[in-house]
What does this fold into?
Amino acid sequence: MPLLNSSYNPPLFFKNGHLSTIYSGLVRKIEHLEQLRLRLTLPDTDFLDLDWSYSKTPSKKIVLIIHGLEGSSKRAYIQGSAKALTESGFDVCAINLRGCSGSMNNLYRSYHSGATEDLQSVIDHVLQLDKYSSIFLHGFSLGGNLLLKYLGEEGKLPKEIKGAVAISVPCQLADSLHQLLQFKNFLYARRFKGNLVEKLKLKKQSFPSLISDLDIEQIKTLKDFDDIYTSRAHGFKDAMDYYAKCSSLQFLNTIEIPTLLINAENDSFLGDECYPVDIAKLHKTLFLEVPKYGGHVGFYGPDNFTYTERRTLEFIHLKIHILVLQLTHHN
It folds into this structure.
């Protein structure tokens, strides 16, 4: 019954979910992390920019990190995780999803919550390096949904993938959208929509036959963006079809590797359906932790080391090692 009790109890200021979220997103800074950027060409001729950070000693363990909506490898939550992991003996590959590295991607399509084919391309690339015996996946928000969907989709995972940690995940995308459209999240939603629309205006310059000024003017909410752009550009009927097909909630039961999901109780982006308690109770390898505090990708911790960074290291070092031994013995 992998439901975990949480020990997270931050200082009073960070018990407020919004303050925790804003601090993590706008105030926190990470220093002394080297990131080497390499460009990966994808099968459809597009590309992903990957930012690599390395352990001081040669490592056969690597963590692939995936950012959230309109994030990038330069966000503090990605860099903080990369720094903690490299200092603990892991190499790190921080994935910039299509169009999120500071360079517009080549195609009309972009990234979305269920684009697991791009994650597969990165994994294939890492495997071709023939350097790593253990691969771990680590995702935040949209990136967490993407990796959970990947883990639970049909098909056998490469044996090198040993486990995963997902933070602040909108497991049910329509439920999360409903939360984002409420007044409590007005500022976040406006910021997300503004960034997405600005990128779409740039897309229009390269693909004028696929999107019009009138289309862009009609985007008033995040759902409008998904109706007008995300769904059409990626082969879905509309926004609701996109949410239904790409929500990771429906894939959780078929995850077979040790996986930790941490969603804060006071995350204003998540509705009730984003806390898969009943699934976790009956699951052998999906561990769910619901701290009372943390906001959305917040989880402030002392010495600029967040609670989720500590929990990620603990889970990878301890839980996964134990579970792999148990599963191997059982099989």
Summary: Strands lie at 3-4, 36-41, 47-53, 61-66, 91-96, 134-140, 161-167, 259-262, 286-289.
